[in-house]
């Protein structure tokens, strides 16, 4: 080969390589989500050109990480079955429920490595995943949790995760006081030979800051958060790691199964093949909705991950460095609540994405009530600490139009002190994050179907009857239920009503209506924001337009009722009084 031929062949080789690189770039850009992410946040994304292996679906073959079928075992709670105590254990059991919010006597009798049912859709068994997935630190934060539920969480992770993908289980103690979480816990985890690590907060930080600390201290490439009362499902880990392996700006969320807080039965929350995803209503309560067609149709298999606007909060995986790059959680959020939205809006608006992964299941004990207080962190906080968190989140991430919906739904929030959000706003700018309108159009497009734009309030506050001098009250009942009147006590959820321009009388996320039986608290009709009420400023009467009667207190028995309107009668007169949070 002479020198010219040599040059030519080199040139040819160079051209071929360039062509190949161009092709790779072109096809990589065909994924619309990846595309949006790439164009916006190249500085965060360090997508290498190194070839990524893809997951494969093989209907006639088991997936590569499928565990061998477990032999059925007998014993309390095995197979995820409910466990029933003897009658003489009842006292002890109810004591433990009031202490931990779950029946620890039942839990203590169940093996830490009990078997559970496979709640995944059958397709899941046939997915194979790359063998070079990133390693995860499973981070479990806890405050005063029960012993066996915490350790069963740990044991299930150890039992059901391929060891090559499990860097460690990192327990982060949020300043618990209970004796069993001290020395006894340190001694117990020694048997895991360093796979399980324990660190402790020097003071109570709340779960939000404690999770951020967990991520800072974790050693794995991915952090995977779990509550301290979970049991992970069969082959739960590779499906969560795979989307992060493909794109490090992805958060993945397992589908949550239920573990009964009284008998510890493990059962799916979702039945059948319908998939759900996390959304929210304008008071920032977490909601779930069937995956809309627009999203469902982007996938070939129903077992594939799908995009979701948000998530419940507790259980998710994320690239550790990415999580820290986007500022982890807003450190101004306190103890509990709203952090799921903060992280979700931030991820989506700043170029990442959230996927729910149907082939990864994790059971969680939903407690009947919260067994702990917010301690010192809640001191000096006017009003509800959770609403303060929501306010911080919406003030940072919502556009003005959407902020108004939150304040319409939660009028007292206007008065709450949310602290300083300058740093959050600066970060939002620095990361070049998109608007909330973009998020609503491209990601959370199903929210407005269920929770339409809110008409402004005409009035809000407690609603006091002039004659009876008492206030309209939900009486603390769940809908559907009869409403009543009681001593006016202002702040709280039972007496704070909103009457909007479209005639809806709302209290919290519920609505007031009436029928022949009386005045009722009902679940507001999904997708509607109107109602039957009309308030007359002059006579101070509240008319039910359909029944053509007025809200009144019966002069004889002092009961709430509807009567033919009598504008001169004080028993038919009501006044709204706005309430300042205490
Ligand atoms: C849900 C989430 C929870 C969290 C919360 C909102 C699920 C299944 N659970 O409530 O993870 O996102 O909504 O903030 O999605 N803990 C502390 N310090 C505290 C309080 C709690 O470390 O001050 C621990 C607690 O021991 C538990 C975890 O944080 O391991 C979550 O608390 P939870 O189980 O009481 O919250 P949950 O499930 O009601
Ligand atoms: Mn929990």
From TrEMBL:
Signal peptide start and end residues: 1-36
Under CDD domains, the record lists: beta-trefoil_Ricin_GALNT7, pp-GalNAc-T
- The species this protein belongs to is Daphnia galeata
Q: A Gene Ontology CC term for this entry?
A: Golgi membrane
Q: Chief localization class?
A: Golgi
Q: Where is this gene product found?
A: Golgi apparatus membrane
Q: What cofactor(s) does the depicted protein rely on? A: Mn(2+)
| Segments for region (Disordered) | 60-84
For molecular function, the Gene Ontology terms on record are:
carbohydrate binding; metal ion binding; polypeptide N-acetylgalactosaminyltransferase activity
Where does the source fall among the domains of life? Eukaryota
Q: Which residues form the Ricin B lectin domain?
A: 461-577
Q: Which InterPro entries match?
A: GalNAc-T, Glyco_trans_2-like, Nucleotide-diphossugar_trans, Ricin_B-like_lectins, Ricin_B_lectin
Q: Which family does it belong to?
A: Belongs to the glycosyltransferase 2 family. GalNAc-T subfamily.
Know the name of this protein?
Polypeptide N-acetylgalactosaminyltransferase
Q: Which Gene3D superfamilies match?
A: 2.80.10.50, Spore Coat Polysaccharide Biosynthesis Protein SpsA, Chain A (3.90.550.10)
PANTHER family with a match to the protein in the record: N-ACETYLGALACTOSAMINYLTRANSFERASE, N-ACETYLGALACTOSAMINYLTRANSFERASE 7
Listed PROSITE patterns: RICIN_B_LECTIN (PS50231)
> An example of a Gene Ontology BP annotation on this entry?
protein O-linked glycosylation
Enzyme Commission (EC) number? 2.4.1.-
- Please state the pathway this protein functions in, per its UniProt record: Protein modification; protein glycosylation
An example of a Pfam family matching this protein is Ricin_B_lectin
Bilayer topology: Single-pass type II membrane protein
Concerning SMART domains, the annotation shows: RICIN
Q: Does the keyword Glycosyltransferase apply?
A: yes
Print the keywords alphabetically: Disulfide bond, Glycoprotein, Glycosyltransferase, Golgi apparatus, Lectin, Manganese, Membrane, Metal-binding, Signal, Signal-anchor, Transferase, Transmembrane, Transmembrane helix
């Amino acid at each position: 080969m002479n020198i010219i031929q040599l040059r030519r062949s080199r040139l040819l080789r160079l051209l071929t390589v360039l062509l190949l690189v161009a092709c790779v770039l072109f096809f990589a850009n065909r994924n619309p989500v990846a595309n949006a992410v790439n164009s916006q946040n190249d500085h965060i994304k360090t997508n290498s050109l190194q070839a990524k292996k893809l997951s494969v679906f093989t209907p006639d073959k088991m997936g590569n990480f499928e565990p061998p079928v477990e032999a059925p075992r007998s014993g309390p709670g095995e197979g995820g079955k409910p466990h029933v105590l003897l009658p003489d254990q009842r006292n002890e059991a109810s004591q433990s429920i009031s202490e931990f919010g779950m029946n620890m006597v039942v839990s203590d009798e169940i093996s830490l490595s009990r078997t559970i049912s496979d709640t995944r859709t059958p397709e899941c068994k046939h997915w194979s995943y790359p063998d070079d997935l990133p390693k995860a630190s499973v981070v479990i934060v806890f405050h005063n949790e029960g012993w066996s539920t915490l350790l069963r969480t740990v044991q299930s992770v150890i039992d059901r995760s391929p060891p090559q993908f499990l860097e460690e289980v990192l327990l982060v103690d949020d300043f618990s006081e209970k004796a069993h979480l001290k020395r006894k816990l340190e001694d117990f985890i020694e048997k895991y030979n360093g796979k399980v690590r324990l660190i402790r907060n020097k003071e109570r930080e709340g779960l939000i800051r404690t999770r951020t600390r967990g991520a800072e201290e974790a050693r794995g490439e991915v952090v995977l958060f779990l509550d301290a009362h979970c049991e992970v499902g069969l082959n739960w880990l590779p499906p969560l790691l795979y989307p992060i392996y493909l794109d490090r700006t992805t958060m993945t969320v397992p589908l949550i199964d239920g573990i009964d807080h009284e008998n510890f039965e493990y059962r799916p929350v979702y039945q059948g093949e319908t998939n759900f995803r996390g959304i929210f209503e304008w008071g920032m309560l977490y909601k779930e909705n069937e995956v809309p067609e627009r999203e469902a149709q982007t996938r070939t298999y129903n077992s594939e991950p799908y995009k979701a606007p948000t998530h419940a909060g507790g259980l998710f995986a994320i690239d550790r460095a990415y999580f820290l790059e986007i500022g982890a959680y807003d450190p101004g959020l306190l103890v509990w609540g709203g952090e799921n939205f903060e992280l979700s809006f931030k991820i989506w608006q700043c170029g990442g994405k959230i996927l729910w992964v149907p082939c990864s299941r994790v059971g969680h004990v939903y407690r009947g009530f919260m067994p702990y207080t917010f301690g010192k962190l809640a001191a000096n906080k006017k009003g509800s600490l959770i609403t303060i968190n929501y306010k911080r989140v919406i003030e940072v991430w919502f556009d003005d139009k959407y902020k108004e919906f939150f304040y319409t739904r939660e009028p007292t929030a206007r008065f709450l002190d949310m602290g300083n959000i300058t740093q959050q706003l600066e970060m939002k700018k620095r990361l070049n994050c998109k608007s909330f309108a973009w998020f609503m159009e491209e990601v959370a497009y199903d929210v407005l179907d269920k929770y339409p734009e809110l008409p402004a309030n005409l009035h809000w506050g407690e609603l006091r009857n002039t004659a009876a001098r008492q206030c309209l009250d939900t009486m603390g009942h769940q809908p559907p239920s009869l409403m009543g009147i009681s001593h006016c006590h202002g702040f709280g959820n039972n007496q704070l009503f909103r009457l909007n321009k479209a005639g809806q009388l709302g209290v919290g996320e519920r609505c007031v209506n009436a029928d022949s039986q009386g005045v009722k608290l009902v679940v507001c009709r999904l997708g509607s924001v109107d109602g039957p009420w009309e308030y007359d400023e002059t006579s101070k009467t509240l008319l039910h337009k359909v029944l053509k009667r007025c809200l009144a207190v019966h002069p004889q028995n002092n009961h709430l009722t509807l009567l033919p309107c009598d504008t001169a009668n004080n028993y038919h007169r009501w006044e709204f009084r706005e309430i300042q949070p205490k």
